[in-house]
Amino acid sequence: MSTAVASKGLEGIVAANSGICWIDGDAGVLAYRGIDIHDLADSSTFEETTYLLWHGKLPTATELEAFKKKLSDSRQLPADILKLLREFPKTATPMEVLRTAVSALSFYDPNEKAVDHDSNVRKSFDLTAQIAMVVATFDRIRKGKPVVEADKSLSHAGNFLWMLTGEKPSETATRAFDVALILHADHELNASTFAARVIAATLSDVHSSITGAIGALKGPLHGGANEAVMRMLFAIDKEGADPVDYVKNLLAQKKKISGFGHRVYHTEDPRATHLRKMSEDLGRSANNTKWFDMSQKIERYIKSEKKLNANVDFYSASTYTMLGIDLDLFTPIFAVSRVAGWAAHVIEQLDDNRLIRPRAEYIGPEYPEKYVPISQR
């Protein structure tokens, strides 16, 4: 029998020791390796933040340049993967494609089964580069557009936008997307990260762990809330409705408003602070603040009436839309960022591994339940 009763959904249960991410939900603090997310969002880049997550410290200028070069050199997809992307059913969603493509990429890893530290780091470079490429490349293919070759001179954020749109992104767009990647890079033992660690703990492999994480992210209770936010904003715009009146009507029907509240944070999600400003800045840069203005009116009403704060998903919706990103790419783009955190946790798990095997609190019939022969049932 287990020795402690876990709350439903393991809420509040500490399931691992980790030096990667710290969250104080009451104070609204998120930190990677002890560094506040606000400092990283203001001053860092996705590449530097990823180095921090994987190595436990900020890089020197030389280390960062070497890291960036290794990541850009990993921007390659095997020809057979490109062929696979072209052959997926027309009904395949980007998340389904990403899940299957990442699994298939393991076939082309020269040492797929290795789980030593150096192999895990090497695979992390490959997958971080390749996940971004798969998302952008498949979107081009499904739209009948030519595939855009990676530009190794661009940053990770800049290259993704380049491969997605076929146009060199502006500095404003690149920086906005770079900050979005930083904000989503890790979030402790969320469902997908915990799934990745459980798989890694069996001494499976990095590709299996990341595939499992993507499978967990695909579920609407983990990924997809920002899609729901944007669908709501599109509906409000289409109807020409007042945003607050529209939300009041939804609440009257006992419907949930996506993008508010959080399982961990009891104050404002610190990531929302930056995404709110990014949404506004992108809107002003494009001379189109429609989505930001709607979002702000809704946020003020929900906070006033329901005492709920916006979370990371609420303003990421309008931010991604202003970057020209399609709705069904929102969750795959979460993976483009979160692979940095997934990889960090897999590396950490395998550096000091023990099989993750929790117990269940038994609530079935009392033992010993009598076996009744089938002739007597």
How would you describe this protein?
57% of the residues lie in helices and 3% in strands. The protein contains 16 helices and three strands. It has helices spanning 37-43, 46-55, 61-73, 79-87, 94-105, 117-142, 156-165, 171-184, 191-201, 206-217, 225-239, 243-252, 270-285, 290-306, 312-322, 330-351, and strands spanning 21-24, 29-32, 35-36. Strands 1-2-3 form a three-stranded antiparallel β-sheet.
Low-confidence stretches: none
In what order do the strands lie side by side in the largest sheet?
1-2-3
Overall outline: globular
Roughly how many Å apart are the termini?
30 Å
Please count the beta strands (DSSP E, at least 2 residues each).
Answer: 3
- The proportion of residues in beta strands is under 5%
- Output mean pLDDT: 95
Tally of helical runs: 16
SS-based structural class?
mainly alpha
Helical residue percent?
55-70%
Radius of gyration over C-alpha positions, nearest whole angstrom: 22 Å
N-to-C SSE string, H for helix and E for strand: EEEHHHHHHHHHHHHHHHH
- Give the biggest sheet: 3 strands, antiparallel
